Amino acid sequence: MQLEYATLDGLLVPNFFGSDNLYDTDSVERMLRHFWSFREANIEFFSPMSSETAVLPLSGRFANVTKLVDTYLAEVAPDVNLKPQKMKSLMEALPESCRTLDDGMYRALDIYFKEHPWLPEREREQLCTIINWSRLSFEACTHASQNERLPLRFILQVLFFEQMQLRAALSNYLRVVHNDNMTSAAEEMTGDIRQGDGWVSVVSENQHLRVDMERLLSKVRKLEEEFVNIKQEMGKVSKTNIFTISRRSISRTLGCTSMEEPQTSWS
């Protein structure tokens, strides 16, 4: 009931029995589920014994707990003996409504995939369904869109949500500019957006880079096709030239032996 005041070291209890896991994840999972059951039952939370520690509001308590849980997940994720089912149950111990961003869970899941490269695609997809991909920050979206460890369909989801965020930001900006009808106000708004929501310009540049990359790849493919065609034509020409030269050499040789008499000198 005082989980919001706990520390990471307090949760990293070594596991001495019951499984091969490095840490006692079962106890932590029970703590998280009891913590949420107390919240649903509207049971009054215990305040810390120390008078120097300020009592946190309810929103602050959940923010601390979710941050603590995400840090804990990232710490236990490298354990090679941690089963996907246990990782999934730990990620689901707190409901989705407790989080405003899923960056911490995504970071922990990425570490888990990196340390468990043998996981089949089906189990990867089951773990990925726990994350709300529309609640990633721009930095997390950028990382996830280029993460080869994620299943392909979730990468496409990230790209879709990234594009939706960009469209929403640009439409809000254009609406403000249209209402102002002033060039100076528009310039100030552009500066505010670039400073306050710098990710808009970054996403736009990212989209342009992707388009340029696709065009470059298309040109490279065309050049490769032309190179293959030229190589084939050169091969045909070389074979024709060799055949023609061989015929001429044979003809000259035959002509010399049939028309010219050998000259001999006698002593």
Automatic annotation (TrEMBL):
<protein>
    <recommendedName>
        <fullName>NPH3 domain-containing protein</fullName>
    </recommendedName>
</protein>
<dbReference type="InterPro" id="IPR043454">
    <property type="entry name" value="NPH3/RPT2-like"/>
</dbReference>
<dbReference type="Pfam" id="PF03000">
    <property type="entry name" value="NPH3"/>
</dbReference>
<feature type="domain" description="NPH3">
    <location>
        <begin position="1"/>
        <end position="165"/>
    </location>
</feature>
<dbReference type="InterPro" id="IPR027356">
    <property type="entry name" value="NPH3_dom"/>
</dbReference>
<feature type="coiled-coil region">
    <location>
        <begin position="206"/>
        <end position="240"/>
    </location>
</feature>
<keyword id="KW-0833">Ubl conjugation pathway</keyword>
<keyword id="KW-0175">Coiled coil</keyword>
<comment type="similarity">
    <text>Belongs to the NPH3 family.</text>
</comment>
<dbReference type="GO" id="GO:0016567">
    <property type="term" value="P:protein ubiquitination"/>
</dbReference>
